[in-house]
Amino acid sequence: MTTQDFIGKENFNIRTQTVSESCPSNIALIKYWGKYADQIPANPSISYTLNHCKTNTSMEFIANETFSVQTFLAGNEEVKFAEKIEKYFRNIEQYLPWILKGKYVIRTENTFPHSSGIASSASGFGAIAKCLMALDASFTGKKSEEESLRKASFLARLGSGSACRSLYNGLVVWGKTDEVSGSSDLFGVQYPDAEIHEVFKNFNDWVLLIHEGQKSVSSSVGHGLMKTNPYAERRFQEARENFVPMKEILKKGDMESFIKLVEHEALTLHAMMMMSEPAFILMKTGTLEVINKIWDFRRETKLPLFFTLDAGANVHLLFPGGAEDQIKSFIEAELLQYTQKNGVVKDVMRF
Ligand code: PMV
């Protein structure tokens, strides 16, 4: 499929109405870091979709008013966010030709703590894209579930790249790779269920809130710095190559190799930040303490507790479901002390 396949029909019938949608967050296992124009990723990525960390959004469209956007986050008006959404809507007009023909009031709420450092852009843009597709169905006629989700994923990507993976449950791939049939740079696709060992279908992700609040460098600045990073091409190549073992690992249920690959990806992401010019570091002391404690724990117990990181200081603690009591006790007793306010968000993967 190409971008042309997503161009919207000029034939529409708009009316005032409100739609509500919900979309979960996701956590990448093979990371996307670096992009080209129009939100085309420099390498393919794969993520787990979360279950509890979600954004709930209601979108009121008032037809035939001058185009404007008003946004409320947990009841508080957010002017900066409204400006961002206004720009985004202008940018996607060719895909939804009715989009600038009215006024919007968008109310959005996250189920995870505000300013926890958990990325809300993936679930946020996912929910907005779903709302837009609900309005589009009503203005231009209903589409198949598959077509509508694909276009929602395409639109979400144009808001925030990783958001395109949040439209599907389970493991989701974004970015063209020969290892996953149907994969595309334009939207996310679900990784085939039959190719995933049972052990990976019941998984925990406990997010340790090491540092709550604003990040010192935003994702968009971070992606931009990959353009001049001398290690970027090697990194993109490595991410592409990592799909080969990942496929085998997922099929066989090879936990040991999974842990090695996922932790390597997380550390590579942060290594890229340190190798940028100017360099930046988003990990905090607590992040490093936790990583070392996890490694000690694994060495001593051989239990499958491991980590990944997104573009921030928080640590995503990953461990399979079942036989996890010892892991949970360890987290509570040994790792919570590194959080700012005993903050931990206990999530599971959504299958
Ligand atoms: O979607 P963005 O622009 O916020 O970038 C997200 C990048 C990472 O979270 C670090 C990795 C990923 O693949 O989600």
UniProtKB/TrEMBL annotation:
SUPFAM superfamilies: GHMP Kinase, C-terminal domain, Ribosomal protein S5 domain 2-like. This is Diphosphomevalonate decarboxylase. One of its GO terms (biological process) is isoprenoid biosynthetic process. One of its GO terms (molecular function) is carboxy-lyase activity. Residues 24-179 form the Diphosphomevalonate decarboxylase-like N-terminal domain. Keywords: ATP-binding, Lipid biosynthesis, Lipid metabolism, Lyase, Nucleotide-binding. Residues 207-337 form the Mvd1 C-terminal domain. InterPro entries: GHMP_kinase_C_sf, Mev_decarb, MVD-like_N, Mvd1_C, Ribosomal_Su5_D2-typ_SF, Ribsml_uS5_D2-typ_fold_subgr.
